[in-house]
Amino acid sequence: MRVLGIDTSCDDTAAAVLDGPRTLRSNVIASQVDLHAAFGGVVPEIASRAHAERITAIVDRALAEAGAAPSSIDAIAVSNRPGLVGSLLVGVAAAKSLAWIWDVPLVGVHHIEAHVVSACVDHPDLEPPFLALVASGGHTALYLAEDDVRIRCLGGTVDDAAGESFDKVAVLLGLPQPGGPHVSRLAESGDDGAVHFPRSRPTGDPMGFSFSGLKTAVLYHLKGPGGRRDAPDRPDLGTSHADVAAAFEAAVVDVLADRTLEALAATGVRNVAIGGGVAANRRLRRVLAERLPAGARLFTPTPSLCTDNAAMVALRGHALLVRGVRSPLDLEVAATGDDAAG
Ligand code: KG4
Ligand code: ZN
Question: Is the pTM of this model over 0.85?
Answer without folding.
Answer: yes
